[in-house]
């Protein structure tokens, strides 16, 4: 399976021109998934734009010193990254200097003129990342790829973007833990949009565990409507429990189209085929192993 | 604009300096830097202040509104080049984002006034022009230098050769593994899918069910890789050489850059002031070395803007002060607004700015002070409103200003009328002894007479407005505004007027029984 092409097709199937790759944690294969999509888009002749809500593409993780996969970008790719992370060599075409601030300087928009390794660090706020995606689109990027840190999920809500969830062996003691986390994350992101015809209870702000427990205790059967998935702080088993007892809905849905797995962690590995299969079964999503060039169907 | 030398936080709040600051805000970063350094003129510099104001009005007359807008648009999109210039001054090599900033700054300068740009900076601009990519971008293109073009061509060749050799290896490995392609640097090979690993791949890590592998380069590929890296390094050196040349160009023009930046910063400030003067029909005040403040048809612009935004009319006023004076008048008749107008015009004049009036004569004050309503919003712990006012007065009396105007709004209104009157009269005399120009708004009768100062009054209600049928507050206020004559006129010291408080209470819908009883009580006394 040409994983990059398959992911790209799924992302663009509903007309979305931007895809966010979010992960269950650090070092779970987001960068590898991103670059495979970018390569596929370039091969199809699409103008690619890339950015990140965190930091992506560095050779060594700045926090835990783990060696990271790097981002080799092809000529023509437009990137939005912090000014101080833009390499001097090879020279890039500087398109604009924005006023979005990051720890490594303001975000600069640049076009890759020669293939090279780049680091991405775009706007860190949900509104900033949305504006950045619009700017990239205005620069005629036909496929925009964003490393979307999970705590910036608000940027995804209602934007019409496609979302790919990456899950890896890093950070989990067992495959079951990793699969459960993927299931929970996907369930949260995929809370369906509410039905106007049916009774509903709109929650202003976050659906806290206290409110949720009370609603469950009261036997609430109406749709419980939150603005978007970010308004449900619960995760893991607590979230799955809520989903069984309450009819959770949202105003601004998120379109999750696929999952990727990285079976090789820093300290352990999972058997790749069964890992992909388990994630596909748990999430109901087509699941890809970029390293193995393989896919498991839901 | 630095208001601190002229007025304190209480007065700044009363005169709404934040409104003025925003109105006069320049559009560029460098303009804002210059703006933040503006301080008021000191007494003794009346002529300089007058000339400054004159320059603003001249500019507003000389330029059409479209010209002002066009220049401000250009300045707004001009990046601040200070970082780039400073780095060049220190002998550092500018990076491409800084070169873009310099290019765009010069674009902005050209739109504002091409004649401002000195010859050597024009030469720099023409060098940078070689890097213009599209309308707004910058790229270190081959046009800068033949050596750069040659290095880039070498690097392209070396990269193509390496890609070709590596591609062939990757195809061979993919075929051996039965795959379409080897897409990534690292890839998994399942143990059960191969009997032995094909040549040309290296195992990075082994797991019970798979190998994590990467491509192994043969001698030809390694040689191509070495050449590619050498060519890339040479290209990096060539790129940096071009940046160094341009950076040295910038360094050689530092003085001219400083002058240009200073000029554009000042122009940005002046354009904002000219726009203000034009928009609010301001005039150059006659700034004099005498303790006075007089104007005709003056306006307190923040209030004017607020009323007009609500669709209400604003009535300008005229006032002439050359010593202490008392202002009386009805409730909601504009006494406080009159004090605000005096402070606002005095403040603008102190900064050498045109003032919103038909004509104005004004001293250069070095201290504008507000006392009374509004001051009590300062934190005061256990102090009563009256105690806070007294402490504020004490503090104002101790100030060392040489030209101070004190605007007093219903001082001591929260104590007994007899004692308040005594305090007010004594305060007027005390401030006069200290040679302060003081203007006092009060409801207390006889202050002007007893303090032997001029007495002004708001004309007040032309007739008693009819209360609206519904309890609509905005309709009541509109009826009041229609009936009120806000003009301030000098009156004899026997005329203390009245507050029209009962008519106002009726208009604002106070319960009928209370209004009637109050009227009877007043009549019987």
Describe this structure as you would to a colleague.
The complex is a heterodimer of chains A (298) and B (525). With 298 residues, chain A is an alpha/beta fold. Chain A is 28% helix and 26% strand. In chain A, the strands form 3 sheets. Chain A has a 10-stranded mixed beta sheet with strand order 5-6-4-2-8-1-9-13-14-15, with helices on both faces. The mean pLDDT of chain A is 87. By secondary structure, chain B is of the alpha/beta class. Helix content of chain B is 51%, strand content 14%. Chain B contains 19 helices and 15 strands. A 6-stranded mixed beta sheet of chain B has the order 11-12-13-9-14-15, with helices on both faces. A 4-stranded mixed beta sheet of chain B has the order 6-10-7-8. In chain B, helix 5 runs antiparallel to helix 7 and helix 18 packs antiparallel against helix 19. Chain B is elongated. Chain B starts with 8 loop residues before the first helix and ends with a helix. The model of chain B has no long low-confidence stretch (mean pLDDT 90).
What features would you highlight for this structure?
heterodimer; A: 298 residues; alpha/beta; three-stranded parallel β-sheet; 7 helices; 15 strands; 26% strand; B: 525 residues; six-stranded mixed β-sheet; four-stranded mixed β-sheet; 19 helices; 51% helix; 14% strand; elongated
């Amino acid at each position: 399976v040409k994983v990059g092409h398959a992911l790209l097709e799924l992302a663009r199937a509903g007309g979305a021109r931007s895809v966010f790759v979010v992960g269950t944690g650090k070092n779970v294969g987001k960068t590898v998934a991103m670059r495979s999509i970018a390569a596929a888009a370039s091969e199809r002749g699409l103008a690619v734009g890339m950015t990140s809500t965190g930091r992506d593409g560095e050779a060594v993780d700045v926090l835990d010193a783990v060696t990271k996969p790097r981002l080799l970008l092809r000529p023509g790719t437009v990137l939005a990254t912090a000014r101080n992370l833009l390499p001097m060599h090879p020279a890039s075409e500087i398109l604009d200097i924005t006023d979005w601030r990051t720890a490594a300087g303001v975000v600069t928009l640049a076009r890759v003129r020669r293939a090279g390794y780049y680091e991405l660090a775009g706007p860190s706020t949900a509104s900033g990342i949305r504006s950045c995606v619009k700017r990239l689109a205005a620069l005629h990027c036909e496929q925009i790829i964003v490393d979307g840190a999970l705590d910036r999920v608000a940027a995804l809500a209602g934007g019409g973007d496609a979302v790919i969830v990456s899950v890896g062996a890093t950070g989990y003691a067992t495959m079951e833990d990793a699969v459960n986390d993927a299931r929970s994350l996907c369930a949260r992101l995929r809370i369906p949009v509410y039905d106007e015809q049916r009774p509903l209870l709109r929650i202003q702000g976050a659906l806290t565990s206290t409110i949720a427990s009370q609603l469950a205790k009261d036997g609430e059967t109406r749709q419980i409507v939150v603005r978007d998935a970010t308004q449900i702080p619960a995760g893991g088993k607590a979230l799955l429990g809520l989903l069984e007892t309450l009819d959770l809905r949202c105003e601004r849905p998120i379109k999750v189209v696929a999952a990727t797995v990285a079976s090789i962690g820093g300290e352990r590995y999972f058997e790749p085929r069964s890992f992909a299969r388990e994630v596909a079964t748990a999430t109901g999503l087509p699941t890809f192993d970029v390293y193995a060039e393989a896919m498991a169907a839901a | 604009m630095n208001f601190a030398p002229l007025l304190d936080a209480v007065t700044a709040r009363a005169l709404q300096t934040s409104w003025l600051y925003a109105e006069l805000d320049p559009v560029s970063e460098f303009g804002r830097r210059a703006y933040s350094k503006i301080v008021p003129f000191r007494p003794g510099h009346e002529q300089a202040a007058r000339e400054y104001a004159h320059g603003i009005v001249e500019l507003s007359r000389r330029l059409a509104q479209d010209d002002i807008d066009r220049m401000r648009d250009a300045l707004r999109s001009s990046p601040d080049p200070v970082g780039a210039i400073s780095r060049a001054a220190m002998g550092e090599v500018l990076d491409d984002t800084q070169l873009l900033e310099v290019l765009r700054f010069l674009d902005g300068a050209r739109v504002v006034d091409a004649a401002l740009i000195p010859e050597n900076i024009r030469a720099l601009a023409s060098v940078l022009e070689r890097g213009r990519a599209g309308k707004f971008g910058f790229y270190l293109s081959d046009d800068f230098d033949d050596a750069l073009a040659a290095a880039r061509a070498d690097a392209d060749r070396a990269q193509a050769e390496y890609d070709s050799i590596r591609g062939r290896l990757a195809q061979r490995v993919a075929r051996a593994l039965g795959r379409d392609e080897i897409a990534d640097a690292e890839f998994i090979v399942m143990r059960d899918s191969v009997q032995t690993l094909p040549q040309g791949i290296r195992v990075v890590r082994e797991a019970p069910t798979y190998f994590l592998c990467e491509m192994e380069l043969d001698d030809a590929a390694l040689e191509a890789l070495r050449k590619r890296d050498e060519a890339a390094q040479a290209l990096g050196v060539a790129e940096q050489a071009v940046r160094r040349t341009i950076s040295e160009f910038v360094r050689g023009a530092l003085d001219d850059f400083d002058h240009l930046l200073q000029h554009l910063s000042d122009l940005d400030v002046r354009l904002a002031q000219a726009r203000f003067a034009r928009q609010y029909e301001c005039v150059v005040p006659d700034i004099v070395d005498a303790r006075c403040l007089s104007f005709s048809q003056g306006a307190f612009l923040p209030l004017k803007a607020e009323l007009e935004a609500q669709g209400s009319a604003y009535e300008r006023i005229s006032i002439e002060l050359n010593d202490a004076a008392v202002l009386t008048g009805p409730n909601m008749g504009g006494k406080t607004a009159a004090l605000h107008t005096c402070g606002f015009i005095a403040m603008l004049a102190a900064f050498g700015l045109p003032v919103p009036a038909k004509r104005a004569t004004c001293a250069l004050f070095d201290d504008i002070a507000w006392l009374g309503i509004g001051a009590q919003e300062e934190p005061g712990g256990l102090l009563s409103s009256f105690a806070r006012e007294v402490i504020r007065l004490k503090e104002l009396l101790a100030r060392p200003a040489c030209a101070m105007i004190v605007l007093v709004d219903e001082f001591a209104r929260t104590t007994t009328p007899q004692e308040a009157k005594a305090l007010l009269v004594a305060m007027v005399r005390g401030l006069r002894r200290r040679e302060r120009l003081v203007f006092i708004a009060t409801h207390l009768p006889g202050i002007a007479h007893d303090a032997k100062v001029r007495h002004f009054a708001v004309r007040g209600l032309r007739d008693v407005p009819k209360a609206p049928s519904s309890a609509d507050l905005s309709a009541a206020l509109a009826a009041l505004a229609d009936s009120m004559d806000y003009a301030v006129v000098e009156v004899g010291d026997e005329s203390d007027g009245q507050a029209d408080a009962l008519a106002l209470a009726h208009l604002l819908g106070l319960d009928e029984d209370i209004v009637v009883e109050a009227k009877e009580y007043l009549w019987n006394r």
